[in-house]
Amino acid sequence: MVDSSHLYTSLGDQPKQVHFDANKTATTPILQDKQGSNVLRPNIVLATPRQRTDTCFLYFFGLFMVVWLGLAFYMYTTGNVNKKSLTPHDSEGRMCGEIGDDYDFSNKQNLIFFDMVKCISVNSLVNKCETPQVCVETCPVKNFIYSQIEGLPWEKVDKSEIVCIDNKTKNSIKSYGDFLKAIRTNLCSAYLLKSVSLFGRCVPVSFKTKKHETDKVEDVKELVVNHGDKLKLLAGIHKLPSMVETIKENKSFTLQLIEDLWNSYNIILFGFGLSVLIAGIYLNLLKYLGGLIIYISIVTTLLVLLGTAIICFYQCTALTTSTLEQPIPLDINFSNFMDDPDAWKYGSIFFSVIFIIFLFLCLFMKKRIKLAFLMINETSKAVRKIPGVFILPVIPLLMNGLFLMIWVALSFRIPHHGTEMCQIKTYSFGGDFISAETCDCSLAVDIDSECKRTDFKESSAVNWYFQSFNLFCFFWASCFVSAYHDMVLAGAFSVYYWTFNKKENLPKTIVKDSLRRTTKYHLGTVAMGSIMIAFVKFLRATIEVLQKSLKGSKNKFSRFIYTMLRFFFWILEKFLNFLNKNTYVITAIHGTPFYTSAKTAVKLIFKNLVNYQVVDWVTTILLFFGKLSISLISGGMTLYYVTQWEEGSLNDQLNYWLTPVLVVIFGSYYIVDLFFDVYAYGVSALFMSYMVDCEMNDGSDEKPYYMSKKLLKRMKKGHGSEGDDSEKEMVEMSE
C-alpha cells in the first residue's frame, strides 16, 4: 500500500510555489523489494485503503428523498386529483375528455369560452375566465356572431355553429327568439371565433400577416360593424375587434413561440442532431490533433464574427441606398425592424466590437494559451484511453430531467391541494360576472344545481412549506447527481494519471471501477458537497422571490440590500462549485472525507494559484470557442434551411424565423457543453493530480514523478530549468 500521509504533513501553513529540481531525477522508474525483485510503482488510487466517508450526510439525503417522494405520493393519491390538475373542465367542474359519474365527455376534449373578451390573457385561460365554459368535440372553424342567422328559418340554421352549455338546452331552442333568450341567460354563446386547440383550450387562431392567410382582423370588424349595433346582450362585444387586433399585433409571445416550435420541430431536431454529429467529430479530432483543433475553433469563431459584421454592414448599406425592396430575400414577419438600416448598423458595430475583443484576447494570451494546450493534450490522451467518460454526462442529464418533472408536477399539485370550494355565481344581463356565494359542495353533485365547483383551498402557510421543501429537495437531488458525476470523472482521470506505466498497466475498466468506488465509499462526500450548493441555491431563489415582492416599492435601500445579497450568494455558489470539484479529486485519489480533502485542495491551489488560474481560465475560454463554433455552425445551417426554403413552406408558417435558429444555437450549446465539461473537468483533475504529484514526489529514484515527459519538460521550462537524458528515461514509461 502507498502511504500518502506525507502529503498532508508536507502541506505547511506557508504557501510555496511548486519547484522543479532538475538534479533530482531518476534513472529508472522501477523500485526493488526486499528480495531485490523489480516492481513497478503502484497506482495510489487503486492501492489506497478506503472507508465510507461522510455517511451521516448520505443518511440525511436518503431521508429527504424518501420524504420528497412521500409528499409526491400524498399529493397524487389524496382527494380528486384530476380536478386539481390543469385538465380543462367546464363551468360545472366536469372534465373535458373524461368519463364521470354523471357525464361522458370522452369525445369532447376541448374547452370553449363563451365570451373571449374576458379571456385575452393566457393566464386567464389557466386560472379560469369569468365566463361560461363548455367542453366541445372540436374548436370553431370559422367566425360566427348570433345576428348572422336573424331572419333565417330555424330548420335551415347550421346548428354546428351554435354552442350551448349542454345538448339539452341546444335541442330545446326552436326559434331565433329562443336563441336570444338562451344568450341572455348565459346558456348559449353569442359569438365564436375561429380557434385552435392549445392544451385542450380553444384559443383564437393567430392572425399572421402571411400571404396565404385568409382570416384577417377585418373579418371580425365586419361582423361587429354589420351586426354589433343590434347586439345589446354583451357589454364588451365592441371590444372584440380590438381584442383580435391585440391577438394579431401583441398576442402572447409564449403562444407565438409555441406555434413556431411546433411548426419547426423537424428543423430543430435536425439542428440538434447536426450539433451532436459535429461535436462527435470535434471530440474525436481533439483526441489526436488537440491544439490544432483549438486553433481552428478560434479562427472559425473569429471568421464567423467578422463575417456577421460584414453582412450586417452590407445590409445596412443596401437598405440605405435602396428603398424599393430588401436586398436579401428573407420572408419575415417583423419587417419594420428588419428593414431598418439602423438595426443592421448597430448589429455591425456590436459584432465588430466582439470580434476585436476576442482578437486581442487571443493575441495577448498567446503564451498562456500554449500552457492550456499542453493540459488539453494530456486530457486528450486520457480520453483516448478511457472513452467511456463521454457516456457519463447522460446520467445527470436523464436524472435531472426526472427530478425536474417531479418538481414541476408537485409545484402544480400543491396549490390545488386542499378542500373543494364551491360557489353559486351570479352574472349580469350582459353576461358579466357579478358575485359568488359559498355553498355546500355536496350540492354540486346534482347537475341542475346552481352550486358549482370552482376552486380548492388550503392553508397558505402549509402550501408555502410544501413548496419550499419541494424546491430544496429538487436542488439537492439535482446537485447530488451532478456531484456524483464529478466524483466518478475525478476517479477515472486520477486512475489514469497515477498509473505509472500507462502503455501496459492502465486498467481496462477505469470508468466502471470509478463508479463502483464512488457508489461504495464516497456517496456521503457527494451528499455533503451537494447539500451546500443546494442550500445556497435555495437561499438565492428565496431572495429573488422576496425581491420581486418589492417590485414597484420606493424603498431603494431594501432593494439595494436584496441585490447585494443575490450577488453575494451567486459568488458563494461559484466558489463552492470550484471547491467541490477539486475536493472530489483529492477524495478520489486518497479516499479522505470532504473536510480533509477540501483543506488539502485549498492549500495546493494557493501554493500554485497563478498557474492553476491560468490553466483553468484559458482552458475554459478555449473550450468556449469550440462550443461556440459548433453552435454557430448548427445555427447557421438552420438559418440557411429556413430562409432559403421554397415559398409557401416553412418560412411562411413561422411568426419569427429566428425562433428555430436561436433554439438550435442555445440548445446545441447546452448539448455540446455537457460533453465539453468532461474535457474541462479532465484538465482540472489532471492538473490537481500533477500538484499532488509534486508534493508527494521529488524526482528521485525512490520517488519519481508520475507526470508525462512533455508535461514535466514544459513545466520545468516555464520555471527556467532544463531536464536531462536521465529525466527523459525516468518518465518514458509514464507516457
Oligomer: single chain
Low-confidence stretches: 5-39, 121-127, 206-241, 246-251, 323-335, 444-448, 720-735
The SS-based structural class is: mainly alpha
Number of helices: 24
Q: Largest beta sheet, briefly?
A: 3 strands, antiparallel
| Span between termini | 23 Å
- The amount of beta strand, in percent, is 5-15%
Helix % is: 55-70%
Strand order of the largest sheet: 10-9-11
Mean pLDDT: 74
**Number of separate strands:** 11
* Rg (C-alpha, Å): 34 Å
Structure write-up:
The chain is mainly alpha-helical and 735 residues long. Among the domains are: 110-263, no CATH class; 421-428 and 436-457, no CATH class. It has 24 helices and 11 strands. The chain has helices at 5-9, 44-47, 55-77, 122-127, 167-172, 176-184, 217-227, 240-250, 253-263, 265-289, 291-321, 335-338, 341-364, 366-385, 394-413, 460-497, 510-521, 523-549, 556-590, 594-607, 609-643, 658-696, 709-718, 725-731, and strands at residues 30-32, 38-40, 110-113, 133-136, 144-145, 191-192, 195-198, 201-204, 419-427, 433-439, 452-457. The strands form 5 sheets. The chain has a 3-stranded antiparallel β-sheet with strand order 10-9-11, with no helix packed on it. It has a two-stranded antiparallel ribbon with strand order 1-2. The chain has a two-stranded antiparallel sheet with strand order 3-4. Helix 10 (265-289) crosses helix 11 and helix 19 packs across helix 20 (594-607). The longest helix has 39 residues, at 658-696. The two termini are 23 Å apart. 36% of the residues are buried. This is Choline transporter-like protein.
